[in-house]
Structure to design on (675 residues):
């Protein structure tokens, strides 16, 4: 750091930029009008290049003056010869300025999260640390809530973004319910940063609830043991196989087609709806909040933007509006990097699947329920290169914003 | 998700140009990349033929008609892209008939290609030379790795795995089951005395809509101008196993059996 300062000082000097090396700031105490007049005479001597911070006007007030290095001796001699009292406020102005710059840079580093690399995949601990960082850096708009614990007792954290009262109409966003879909957790933490830094500047954001890692046990497992793990890590009674597909476990057509009853299956629905604490915690939170206007969930991969239903292939009542909004959001997404998303209901776009989260949220009364499948379309699939995290997050954000704006403009 | 199964994949090119034929088969068997079928439950009971509507996805276009007592016929129109560069590689028109009798589907396909035979041949040769000029047998694990990285030295092996896997996916997929190649868990090159290159792979296939990760052992042999030879064996459902983290790599002798014709 010091090296940079020295270098820039030299560089600045070489470019004839003003530096304040050797400049002194004196505080002069005048006792009478005569002394004031003498200082005013000094002021008129332009070749001294004196910079009065407080001009000589009345004997009641001290006079502060910055003196360039090569005038210091002359001014001091003048003052002493006239018996005018002074003290040195600043011995070397440049030193003070340098220290100030250093202090600012340091505090800025502490305040900003630029040590967290949003363009790379992180461990759970790293993401959780960043949640804390955001909550403290943007404390006036971000708070971290714990909505429960996972099967293996890891906390489930939701970031709440708002300035208003407790239960203003809010938008819910979750990511990483399927742990192997790494670009979703990565996108979520980027979005957290984006919302925090944009809050107040953009009118589309009102009150937001963001669950960046819905399935922390699974996420840790993908780092430590099996990158392709999808489910929770709950033990299944009477079976050596572990885990339930958390997106077949919601109380929406539970037990119907499109979910497995086999604990060893990657789409195992679980012994009963909401059996998974990761699911139950969200359900409880949403019910207790009472004013969620939109429920948006992030998955990967396939580049799809879907609305209900998955458990049945009939159209939801709000089909027309949801389809139009979905298309508008997909259009926003495409506008950035040309990434195309296919829009439609779950059942008609991919396959029939029961027990899904947005079916539950929709039937619960949250009209604007959408599921995103982010990049890509199969070349890398779950193993999306980190270089695509930020572009994915940026484009997804545009889609989310489009939906949030519509929700803001269409309260119900 | 329309997948395809059959003894005779409709290769445009009987000479088995890898970069080209892998493209066709990859894009064809990975139909979900371009097209996904729209299936609506009939309103009047399960015995009626399924009605399928039009579905557009990018320029993919799928139509289906039901042929009484005969099965479901799909009409597909889709674009293809180079697996490595993402460049547009042409478009295809295809019909796929799934007979009611559950025998392999009948496929007809016609593609236009942005590259001519000569270009394709040159690319095949470049790929071949790249592999041949390695000083040591290629060995690798987890391609791409957890973070999506592919070491440049392992890219040719990955490209061949894509081509070989597309054949496996071609054979395994059905009217209701489709696949993507999720990862190469291991690759080991076997040096041969002749000019053919040979690789032993373990690949992970992502199965839709079951969401299962299927581990397949694959032995692949190739020489430009000759058809790609693929022998494979996929593990069945991981009943009783805790996680499908993939099979051990190593010699596949004794557990492989040849499937399907050469092409």
């Amino acid at each position: 750091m010091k090296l940079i300062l020295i270098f820039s000082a030299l560089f600045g000097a070489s470019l004839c930029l003003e530096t304040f090396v050797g400049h002194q700031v004196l505080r002069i105490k005048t006792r009478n009008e005569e002394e004031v007049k003498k200082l005013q005479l000094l002021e008129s001597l332009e070749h001294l290049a004196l910079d009065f911070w407080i001009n000589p006007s009345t004997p009641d007030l001290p006079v502060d003056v910055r003196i360039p290095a090569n005038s210091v001796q002359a001014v001091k001699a003048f003052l002493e010869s006239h018996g005018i009292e002074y003290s040195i406020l600043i011995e070397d102005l440049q030193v003070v300025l340098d220290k100030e710059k250093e202090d600012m840079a340091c505090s800025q580093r502490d305040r900003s999260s630029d040590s967290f690399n949003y363009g790379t995949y992180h461990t759970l601990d790293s993401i959780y640390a960043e949640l804390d960082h955001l909550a403290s850096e943007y404390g006036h708009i971000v708070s971290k809530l714990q909505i429960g614990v996972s099967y293996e007792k890891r906390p489930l954290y939701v970031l709440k973004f708002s300035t208003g009262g407790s239960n203003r109409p809010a938008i819910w966003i979750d990511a990483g319910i399927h742990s192997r879909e790494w670009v979703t957790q990565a996108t979520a933490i980027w979005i957290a940063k984006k919302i925090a830094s944009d809050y107040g500047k953009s009118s589309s954001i009102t009150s937001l609830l963001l669950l960046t890692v819905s399935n922390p046990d699974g996420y840790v497992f993908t780092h430590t043991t099996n990158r392709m793990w999808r489910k929770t890590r709950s033990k299944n009674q009477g079976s050596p196989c572990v885990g339930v597909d958390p997106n077949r476990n919601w109380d929406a057509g539970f037990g119907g087609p499109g979910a497995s009853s086999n604990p060893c299956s990657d789409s195992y629905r679980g012994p009963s709806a909401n059996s998974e604490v990761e699911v139950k915690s969200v359900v409880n939170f949403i019910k207790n909040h009472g004013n969620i206007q939109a429920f948006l969930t992030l998955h990967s991969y396939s580049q799809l933007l879907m609305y209900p239903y998955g458990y049945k292939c009939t159209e939801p009542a709000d089909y027309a509006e949801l389809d139009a909004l979905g298309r508008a959001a997909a259009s926003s997404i495409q506008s950035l990097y040309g990434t195309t998303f296919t829009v439609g209901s779950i059942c008609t776009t991919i396959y029939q699947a029961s027990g899904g989260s947005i079916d539950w949220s929709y039937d619960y009364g949250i009209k604007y329920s959408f599921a995103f499948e982010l990049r890509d379309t199969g070349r890398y699939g779950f193993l999306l290169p980190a270089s695509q995290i930020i572009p994915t997050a940026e484009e997804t954000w545009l889609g989310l914003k489009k939906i949030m704006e519509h929700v803001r403009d269409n309260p119900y | 998700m329309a997948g395809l199964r059959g003894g005779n994949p409709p290769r445009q090119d009987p000479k088995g140009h890898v970069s080209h034929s892998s493209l066709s088969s990859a894009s064809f068997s990975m139909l979900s990349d371009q097209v996904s079928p729209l299936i609506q439950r009939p309103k009047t009971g399960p015995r009626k033929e399924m009605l399928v509507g039009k579905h557009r996805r990018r320029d993919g276009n799928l139509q289906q008609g039901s042929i009484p007592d005969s099965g479901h016929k799909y009409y597909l129109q889709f674009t293809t892209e180079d697996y490595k560069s993402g460049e547009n590689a042409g478009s295809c028109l295809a019909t796929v008939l799934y007979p009611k009798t559950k025998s392999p589907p009948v496929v007809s396909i016609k593609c236009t290609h942005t590259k001519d035979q000569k270009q394709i041949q040159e690319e095949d040769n470049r790929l071949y030379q790249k592999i041949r000029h390695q000083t040591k047998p290629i060995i690798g694990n987890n391609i791409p790795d957890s973070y999506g990285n592919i070491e440049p030295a392992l890219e040719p092996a990955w490209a061949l795995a894509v081509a070989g896997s597309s054949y496996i996916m071609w054979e395994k997929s059905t009217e209701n089951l489709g696949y993507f190649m999720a990862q190469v868990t291991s690759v080991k090159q076997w040096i041969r005395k002749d000019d053919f290159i040979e690789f032993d792979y373990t690949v992970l296939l992502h199965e839709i809509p079951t969401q299962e990760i299927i581990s397949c052992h694959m032995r692949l042999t190739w020489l430009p101008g000759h058809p790609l030879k693929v022998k494979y064996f996929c593990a069945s459902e991981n009943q009783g196993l805790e996680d499908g983290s993939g099979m051990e790599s190593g010699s596949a002798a004794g557990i492989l059996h040849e499937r399907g014709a050469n092409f």
Observations:
- The domain at 24-96 of chain A is CATH 3.30.70.340 (Alpha-Beta Plaits).
